[in-house]
Design a protein that fits this description.
alpha/beta; eight-stranded parallel beta sheet; 20 helices; elongated
Length: about 525
């Protein structure tokens, strides 16, 4: 049947259900009932019948029966019922003249199916974030990774450190455009977004990226970095060398206060602490950092980052959170096994570190490889077919591969995405490919079949006013790929600060003993 992600079991039977404006919807999940009723009301068709959804014990995420008289679905919880409703919504668009009768049993392959939204480089208001959540929900994603802090902006109200949002949320310009860029979410807005997402089966995972990518926070509180000199919120991109001073005990005091307040805002048990792209140049010149290394017997700056990460991780554990970290955090060899690793980077060093963590520590992994799942890249860099065919259980996971993958995540970094239309065009329909890899069995994946189903449900985007890239532009020709890739490389290089390459080398250098 024309559903994305592809359902686990579909047993088609004779007949079809012809829906229409008189089709009744009974569903205890208000967001699901509203979604279905809106689509049905706009159909203008004369069909009748009933769509009935109920909480009941089932072994799948949801079960559904479609008969000529209507649709009945049951699930063990409200999230399952919302997923069932989304399946029906897709069927309403794919089969406007009548939905084929069938029995469906459906459940996800992985527990974690996420999209990252970066609101630091370019801020998006609550209305756009809600629309983004709506578009995720259409494909049964269940986590929004909310990237709330970075060099170019701190986007969250924090009362214990108010300068974070008063100063850190405002930058003077972006890449020399002379236009002030600002914005942050109040606590009331965060509560509203959490409730809105939760009603659609989605939890929000906040990310406060430490100890690197902290330029905006350091602009607010210069005492957080080794130099202590005042700085401005950075106006360019790339990798900046303004990182937390991990040798100063006051850094940990402030971090505890900040994390305690933020953790209380987000009920999700997962919390992302970043840990990627941390230049070590400042630590190399800081007496406090070097003294800490001597006291703790740390041999190099990777281990210094590992020491800091474990202290921050333990803070969040006290607050009832499980931490997710970018894969560079593994380079120290010290990070506690309880942390989930988000595997984004390519290269032997990253692969070896993840493989070791999986084989020796039973580490859980979120697969987010940049070459396949970074959707700020144009389609010429990451075509739809490439995203779909990528298999998240990777060879470097070895014999533990099927057990170690916690889930999948595609990302929308917004250095070069400043408007809503481009944000959604880069996301869709590629996000549907990741949704299917996270939900459906690997053996059932078939690109031609996926594209056929995608064509059938694309009218859904038009109905909900969600911009997307037409299928004809999702898999560019070789010439188109070369042209887009070249232009993308120039854009990225032009937007990076002048020391970015040096800082990248510092963040990825082979550790040397003191």
């Amino acid at each position: 049947m024309n559903v994305i992600p592809r359902p686990t079991i579909v047993k088609e039977t004779d007949g079809k259900f012809v829906f229409g404006v008189k089709s009744a919807v009974e569903c205890p999940v208000p967001a699901a009932a509203e979604l279905l009723s809106g689509v049905i009301a706009a159909s203008g068709r004369d069909g009748v019948g009933k769509m009935s959804f109920a909480i009941a014990p089932v072994s799948s995420d949801y079960e559904m029966d479609i008969t000529p008289d209507g649709i009945s679905a049951c699930a063990a919880n409200e999230s399952g019922l919302f997923h069932a409703a989304v399946t029906v919504v897709q069927l309403l668009f794919a089969y406007p003249d009548g939905i084929p009768c069938a029995h469906i049993e459906d459940k996800p392959r992985f527990a974690y199916r996420a999209v990252l939204l970066d609101v630091c480089r370019h801020f998006f208001d609550v209305a756009t974030v809600k629309k983004f959540i709506d578009s995720m929900a259409l494909f049964k994603f269940n986590y929004l990774h909310f990237h709330l802090s970075d060099d170019q902006g701190f986007r969250l109200q924090v009362d214990c450190m108010p300068k974070l949002h008063e100063i850190g949320s405002v930058r003077a310009e972006t890449l020399g455009d002379g236009k002030v860029h600002k914005g942050y979410y109040t606590k009331a807005e965060i509560a509203d977004l959490i409730a809105y997402a939760g009603a659609r089966g989605i939890e929000i995972v906040p990310e406060i990226d430490v100890p690197g990518h902290m330029g905006a926070a350091i602009a607010a509180y210069p005492e957080l970095w080794c130099s202590g000199r005042p700085i401005e919120v950075p106006t360019d991109f790339g990798i900046h060398d303004k990182v937390l001073c991990v040798g100063n005990e006051k850094t940990y005091d402030m971090l505890w206060e900040m994390l305690s307040e933020i953790a209380a805002m987000f009920p999700c048990k997962l919390f992302h602490l970043g840990g990627d792209e941390v230049p070590k140049l400042g630590w190399d010149k800081c007496e406090d950092c070097r003294n800490l290394m001597r006291r703790e017997g740390l041999r190099n700056y990777e281990q210094l980052q590992g020491y800091f990460t474990n202290r921050a991780l333990r803070m969040l554990e006290k607050l009832g959170k499980t931490v997710i970290l970018w894969n560079e955090a593994l380079f120290s060899g010290l990070v506690d096994d309880s942390a989930i690793i988000q595997y984004w980077a390519f290269g032997k060093r990253s692969a070896d570190a993840v493989a070791k963590a999986v084989s020796e520590g039973g580490r859980k992994v979120v697969v987010s490889r940049c070459a396949n799942y970074y959707f700020d890249y144009p389609y010429g860099v990451t075509p739809l077919k490439k995203a779909y065919k990528f298999e998240p259980v990777l060879a470097e996971f070895g014999a533990n591969g099927n057990d170690c993958v916690f889930g999948v995540e595609c990302t929308l970094w917004t250095e070069h995405i400043a408007d809503e239309e481009l944000l959604f065009q880069r996301t869709h329909p590629r996000a549907a490919a990741v949704a299917e890899s996270g939900w459906s069995a690997a053996k059932d994946k078939d690109y031609a079949d996926f594209e056929a189903r995608l064509k059938a449900v694309l009218p859904m985007f038009d109905f909900f006013d969600v911009p997307y890239t037409p299928l004809g532009k999702c898999n560019p020709s070789l010439f188109g790929r070369i042209r887009q890739s070249s232009a993308w490389g120039v854009t990225n290089q032009g937007g990076a600060n002048k020391d970015s390459a040096r800082n990248w080398r510092s963040s990825h250098m082979t550790p040397r003993d003191l």
